[in-house]
Automatic annotation (TrEMBL):
Protein name: Rhodanese-related sulfurtransferase
Segments crossing the lipid bilayer: none
SMART domains on file: RHOD
Coiled-coil features, chain-numbered ranges: none
CDD domains membership: RHOD (cd00158)
Rhodanese domain segment(s): 11-193
Record-level Gene Ontology MF annotations: transferase activity
Pfam family, one: Rhodanese
Organism: Ignavigranum ruoffiae
Cell membrane found in the keyword field: no
Keywords: Transferase
């Protein structure tokens, strides 16, 4: 696989940018239009998140021969153009993903938002807050983006924040302004438990 320059990116070439860096890194800074999909989640979610008819340009942290081999192995069936190291992109080209602590999310008192839980139904043992809740598993989100209210803010929830970041990259690509709930449902449940204890006191 070839190492590319960011100048390779042209609007008239059909490709998809797949950023395999960790979710926390992606939230801090990402290339507009890129999709965050870590290698650990690739086999489970690539089919629902990516387009098989578009070649991939990979965004990686730094060049590593074993990493490149792993990418080639797990992406069998997808066409790859090459990879670009994230550090090569100019800082003024980058954006960031908004996030919110679980405690602050639970304190929201207005209704102009949607809470999107991207966990699969079978794994939900800790139910998400019911207010304005939409349950859309990550693998189905891309096909349902047009059904979302683009005027409202979209808060994204998963187990820990990783899949919510992938979901945020899809919504940002569609021109929306998503917000990831930090720490996912684990953090939300912890805040709810504290609030319940305080209420009892």
């Amino acid at each position: 696989m070839n190492k590319l320059s960011y100048q390779t990116l042209t609007a008239d070439q059909p490709y998809q940018l797949v950023d395999i860096r960790q979710a926390s890194q992606f939230r801090q800074a990402f290339v507009p239009g890129s999709i965050n999909l870590t290698l650990n989640n690739f086999s489970n979610y690539a089919e629902g998140v990516l387009n098989r008819d578009e070649a991939i340009i990979w965004i990686i942290d730094q060049t590593d021969s074993s990493l490149i081999q792993t990418i080639e192995d797990i992406s069998e069936g997808y066409s790859s153009i090459g990879f670009i190291e994230f550090a090569a992109f100019p800082s003024d080209m980058l954006q960031s993903v908004a996030s919110i602590p679980a405690e602050d999310f639970l304190a929201i008192n207005h209704t102009a938002y949607q809470l999107i839980d991207v966990r699969q139904q079978a794994e939900i043992t800790r139910p998400a807050p019911k207010k304005n809740l939409l349950s859309i598993p990550l693998a189905q989100l891309k096909s349902q983006i047009n059904q979302l209210n683009h005027e409202d803010k979209q808060y994204l929830l998963c187990g820990s924040g990783n899949r919510a970041t992938t979901a945020a990259s899809l919504l940002a690509r569609a021109g929306m302004q998503p917000v990831v709930i930090e720490g996912g449902m684990k953090a939300v449940q912890a805040c709810q438990s504290i609030q319940a204890t305080i209420s009892e006191d």
